[in-house]
Amino acid sequence: MPPRTRTLGAAAVAAVLALGTSLLASAPTAGAAEPEPVAVTDHCHNQCADILPPGENGNATLVEILGNKAFGTHPAHSDDQLDRYNGLVAGHTGLTDQKLTDFFNDASFGVAADQVESVTKPREDVTITRDKKSGVPHIKGTTRYGTEFGAGYAAGQDRLWLMDLFRHIGRGELTSFAGGALANQGLEQQFWPQAPYTEADLEAQVEWIRNTEGARGEQAMADAQAYIDGINAYRVKSKKGRYFPGEYVLTGKIDSITNIGEIQPFELTDLISIASVVGGQFGGGGGGEVQAALSLLAAQQKYGVEEGTRVWESFRQRNDPEAVLTVHDGTSFPYADKPDKARGTALPDPGSVTPEPLIHDRTGSAGTNRKDPVRAPAALEPLQGMYDDGVIPGGSLPGSGDGAQKRGMSNALLVSGKHTASGNPIAVMGPQTGYFAPQLMMLQELQGPGISARGVSFAGVGMYIQMGRGQDYAWSATSAAQDITDTYAVELCEPDGSAPTKDSTHYRHDGACTAMEKLERANSWKPTVADSTAKGSYRMRVWRTGYGIVTHRATVDGKPVAYTSLRTTYRHEADSIIGFQLLNDPAYVTDAASFQQAASHIDYAFNWFYADSRTTAYYNSGMNPVRAAGVDAALPVKAEKAYEWKGYDPAANTADYTPFAEHPHSIGQDYYISWNNRQAEDYSTAAFGFGAVHRGDLLDDRVSALVEEGGVTRASLTRAMEEAALTDLRGEQLLPELLKVLRSQPVTDPAVSAAVQQLDSWRAAGAQRKETAPGSRGYTHAGAVRLMDAWWPKLVEAEFRPGLGDGLYTALTAGLATDESPAASHGPSGAHSGSAFQYGWWGFADKDLRQVLGQPVEGPLARTYCGNGDLSACRSALLTTLKEAAAVPASEVYPGDDSCKAGEQWCTDAIIHRPLGGISQKSIHWQNRPTYQLVAEFPSHR
Fold it and tell me: Model-level pTM?
């Protein structure tokens, strides 16, 4: 492939010459051969479009990294989708179908002859053609092996360093690989305990797929091996040619002068490690039962067992009747509901719960931020310490950071052809996976025997397109997060018959005192140019039982127990490969029903959406265990045979799973929306926060209005998505009730009256967080936004803490944070992450305020909290907190960080692509929007 960099100035070249001319090596120029004609029919007829900022190219040589740091230059195609993505903020209001490609890529199959930038042939049976506009690889193979080899080779070209990072994260070896920065320590300490494996465990998962999935399984592993072979071919070639990613030099893996060093070969087991990170964070669900038990105990302690349970259940909202649903036609799919009489529940004794220690034998800088910079060559000094805050900044990945929970993200909007202008269905959909440079996913097109698709795949597991479009259909997913993870209380014992303690490492299983299996990972690091963290080491240790991984210790009725986490997809991290293989096979997916069957082979918890020229469809995937009768999935359960999953085999971690028909599914509904909301009636949620107000309402209200009006177009559905992406959920859904309470009597304080009017004007204008004009970096209603950001945490605490009491309020907020605004800095991926308003106390506040106002409420809270149910007292609490909020200066509401000065509102909200390598990107306007997004309308079908 050709050099993919913009020209550096003479000063930049001179700076790196001090390290030797070898640094200037770039990728070899590809031949200018004409692309072969695409041998498939593209039924989208230029009506499919996609986007994945910042750009396709995620590799950078050392020269390119130096140029970026010194002069702000970027490698070719590393940032050319960023402005188009950002441009939709201002451009959506005047959007037409014809203007969509101003903000999206043309997602047609193939590359027009005059748009070919390069053609690479890593083997005779495959070509990788890249287009001029975005550099997306269009991979066409004449053999199955060649196609998959090409996919791996292209992944190496675009994401080699990223894939290396993620295989080490999955294996719990990030600090040994990339440095001992505190964020790196924290990241591996949060990810590895969720999926700890020995090398034999990883190999067994490969063999499981090969030996239990028939011909499809054998083909999947052959495809995976070809993909690995392609990655390794590029790995070797780039190392020899000295155009490998520069991060390998900066982290001490390869010497910049002699080229001595190695990029370790990729293996099939690396795919399992990467899949455990991706699937576990975006496709997990459930767990957290220990924290749920603690909040239940707090409620019972305050109110007594019966009333406390009633209060807790009203906050838990397993099946809130006012919650927005994806399947909204009334079809019921009962799952994980509250039993009439629970059996086997294992609540801890009050005050007995302690988390299982993970870190042992710390040395040097372990657990500290101590630095010991190495002496870097003069030319590399601009890059000194670039990973001192972690190769992946703390809290950037979903499920990472202090107090983090697994967060489901992504959204989808689909409208039936009955309500569109063309008579064909329309879809606007995609995953929210945070913002990184490069992205965790990569765009590609795959065309070969049995494969025909374009879209995105997570780097390192890109044998198939995971979300995108086929010849005459498109599909995507949102995280579903239904309950596929349970917590068991295993009774501890001692093999000699003596009394056990909470620290015992044996447990009762099938009547025997059984030893827990110890799994360990020893990591050590030393300072490098990139990470100045001083030399250090530690050992991570977890205990594995027949009921999963130990997470906590406690006593239950005075007896010591270990709480364990058991996930259905544990030991089956990559089994979903079969479903993705089917989705890419045009001979298999021919209609909505076959799509649903393909999606049902995906084991992780996702909501899958489909559109072709005739209909739309939906299916909820996941290995939902069949639980024993009477087991409450929301709380810990005794680790006894009577309460196990039906058919449970601990050796293989298999069980009986709910059948296809019991998973929420639908074909041809008038419209579908999903923003990680509840799926259907009676399909119980696995966490708090799925009540009367959810960010899914921002989509549902808009799409239902479009459907009622009729004549929906790709542009109008995209506009609806973007309007929701810029809207403050609190301003749209909660302000009307808050204002009713405040105005239930005249507001006499002039300062408070002005604040009320300011908020009301913002609400009337759409409650958006949007610039006055492109590039102004100031919101149209900046004052009102600041007021809401300052007021919301204060009003929630004033509304609920007095009634709940300190203990219960603290326990409930530990399970569900009160706020997740763009400025809250604790959203799904931390600050500057785009995704916002997923979880918060808006649903609780909505019901409580309506109860105070005397309005009808379905599924009310067990008690009314604001002002203890008195409207005047509630109003007084809201007025007091609003006055306090109005007095808080912007510098305190937006305290600033490494990217923003204190008081900079727009900047605090802004999306920042967190650098996973040496290339950084500019900040862009906040949008609560999928990272990868696909717009599709098929006018024809095979």
Answer: 0.95
